[in-house]
Write a structure and sequence with these properties.
The chain is an alpha/beta fold. 43% of the residues lie in helices and 19% in strands. It has 16 helices and 16 strands. The two termini are 27 Å apart. Bound molecules: 6-O-phosphono-beta-D-fructofuranose. The site of 6-O-phosphono-beta-D-fructofuranose has 9 residues, from loops. 6-O-phosphono-beta-D-fructofuranose (F6P) binds next to loops.
């Protein structure tokens, strides 16, 4: 059996009970590992003063995990610094928030090089190598330099911005030069694919051979939109079974006859959380009869708290929340419930099913799996309504959601009103159409589509792969 070697910054090693982690990437790759034996390589999540040069190996089922510690300087420069303070904001169209530092960039390259040198010893000639996420863009170049000639793919989970935005990052051309060392680059949407292809043409003089095929100097790379899906059946079942959860029972009792609006996001400025709270405020001001009739629950687990922009966001959210609840709340009713704990997939599925409205209004998002999970979790007899930002990758597929511009608070507030008053017939029709889309591109099809594309690129291409 052929091996799949996955590399990602975080490695979701199953816990002692063997239970796999619940994140989107973990579930998606679990599917891919059904068809291949696997090796999953990345950061252990730990920091140590003298990390070993070789990874720690942990075998679980048919997957071998290989993880490396970082020094605290590595974490600061590679993860907090370049990946999350310079690249993340640029990729999310926030040029003004991007803080570039040469030291951070050097740290980013150093960690990619040390990952590649440890990984090169573990790669076998027939392995398919599959790199994930923006932390590791230069990894293929480092692997090629270490003599690896295997097919290497990269999946970019977050948006790829327009060339004018990407070009604002110092060293953007150097980062782009790493792209053709991959054979296949998968992105979430057609817009991302187009943006990346245009960047390669404009910054590196790449030549387009076919719609998704580009020649850059002596290498050929395929850039393709392969939107990530979810485990639709698994999520539906989790939602059906969720009724017995204590937390859900408490939530139902607390709601009484009120309708629930739900938002679930990592606490990240790309998700538009304070803006969403202000939108809800606008809705309550424009529709005073709805006060006391509806509760908005925002779940926002804390994220990347060592990065200053995230600490600022946390303060802004708390201030916005306090102001709105203080000015519009009543003794028996709190308009916005805000929780920073992370909940299990089972609890989230139950909360999604309970909510009449799923409010998914990121300012920019690669895909947004919450939108897909919200749809999958609905009760077929009485489904809720998804309000979805046009700037989430999911909006390219879920066209039967109420699609909104998150920057237009009036528009989103009116979408909330429309969703709360939508007939059961219209809710059902929209939900059925979206479920059909989810099923057509669920996570097993995503993994299969990638593998098939991948095997296709093994066919000889007319341009020789050098090195
Ligand atoms: O969406 C991109 C991504 O890197 C995911 O792959 C990851 O699960 C998520 O962001 C969380 O980020 P972090 O690992 O920084 O907590």
């Amino acid at each position: 059996m052929r091996r799949l070697v996955v590399i990602s910054n975080r490695v979701p090693i199953p816990d002692a009970s063997g239970k796999a982690a619940a994140g989107g990437l973990a579930v998606a790759l679990h599917e891919a590992f059904q068809a291949y034996q696997g090796l999953w390589f990345g950061w252990s999540g730990k920091v140590s003063a003298n990390p070993a040069a070789q990874p720690k190996i942990i075998d679980k089922g048919q997957v071998r995990y290989a993880v490396m510690d970082l020094t605290s300087l590595d974490r600061q420069e590679y993860y907090n610094g370049f990946a999350n303070r310079a690249l993340w904001p640029i990729m999310h169209y926030r040029i003004g928030l991007s803080e570039f530092s040469r030291a951070d960039y050097a740290g980013y390259l150093r960690v990619n090089r040390s990952f590649a040198s440890a990984l090169a010893h573990l790669i076998q000639p027939d392995d398919l190598v599959w790199v994930h996420d923006y932390h590791l863009i230069p990894l293929a170049s480092e692997l090629r330099a270490a003599g690896i000639t295997n097919a290497i793919g990269y999946f970019h989970h977050i948006p790829w911005p327009a060339p004018e935005v990407f070009g604002a990052l110092p060293g953007s051309a150097e980062l782009l030069r790493g792209i053709p060392d991959y054979d296949l680059v998968g992105v979430q949407t057609e817009r991302d694919a187009d943006n990346l292809r245009r960047s390669l043409v404009q910054e590196l003089g790449a030549v387009r051979r076919r719609a998704d095929l580009l020649d850059v100097a002596s290498r050929r790379v395929r850039i393709k939109s392969i939107p990530i899906g979810i485990d639709v059946n698994g999520f539906q079942q989790a939602a059906q079974r969720s009724g017995s959860s204590r937390l859900l029972k408490q939530t139902i009792a607390g709601l009484g006859t009120r309708k629930l609006i739900i938002g679930v996001d990592r606490l990240d400025y790309s998700k538009g959380i304070p803006e969403r709270m202000e939108t809800f405020e606008r809705f309550l001001v424009s529709h005073p009869d709805q006060r006391g009739q509806v509760t908005y629950l925002q779940i926002a687990p804390t994220s990347r708290s060592e990065v200053p922009e995230y600490a600022t966001l946390s303060r802004v959210v708390n201030e916005t929340l306090g102001r709105i609840n203080g000015s519009l709340g009543e003794p028996g009713w709190v308009p916005i419930h805000y929780v920073t704990s992370a909940y299990s997939r089972a609890v989230l599925a139950g909360l999604y099913r309970l909510a009449r409205v799923g409010l998914v209004t990121p300012i920019r998002d690669g895909m947004n799996l919450v939108a897909k999970e919200y749809v999958a979790a609905q009760d077929p007899q009485d489904p809720g309504v998804l309000i979805l930002s046009k700037f989430a990758g999911a909006a390219e597929e879920l066209t039967d959601a109420l699609i909104v511009n998150p920057n237009d608070k009036v528009e989103v507030a009116e979408a909330i009103q429309q969703a709360l008053h939508m007939s059961q017939e219209e809710r059902t029709a929209r939900w059925q159409a979206m479920l059909k889309v989810l099923r057509a591109s669920d996570v097993s099809r995503w993994a299969a589509a990638l593998s098939m594309t991948w095997l296709a690129i093994r066919q000889p291409e007319p341009v020789a792969k050098l090195r």
